[in-house]
Amino acid sequence: MPAKGTDVFLCRLDDLADGASRGFDPGRTGQDTVLLVRRGATIHGWRDACPHHGGTPMAWRKDAYLNAARDRIVCAAHGAQFDIETGVCTLGPCLGQRLQPVELTVTAAGNINIRLEGEEET
């Protein structure tokens, strides 16, 4: 398991298509704990945990975090929808709550890294 306070490589920017989402397991726990969504050159990173349902993972299958229009993150457990840029729930039982952001960096070489901090990321 990577040490807290370290940067962990997730993928290359080119590995995440514009408008796509993907889950990652940077703490090597055996399940995705982070989700990324790409919008143009911007990468949005969130903990893969619904704020309404006790931290339930949100994908209905591997890397399937977005609605059909690809303009909202959706929790498969109960259908809550979240704004991609802000993480705020816009529809569903957790209205007004938000996803927890993760600290990402994109290097000049196009590598997307996450900063592992605290218990949530391991």
Automatic annotation (TrEMBL):
UniProt xrefs under InterPro entries: Rieske_2Fe-2S (IPR017941), Rieske_2Fe-2S_sf (IPR036922)
Protein name per Swiss-Prot or TrEMBL? Rieske (2Fe-2S) protein
Keywords of this entry:
2Fe-2S, Iron, Iron-sulfur, Metal-binding
Q: Where is the Rieske domain?
A: 8-94
Q: Does the keyword Iron apply?
A: yes
Q: Which SUPFAM superfamilies match?
A: ISP domain
| Highest taxon of the lineage | Bacteria
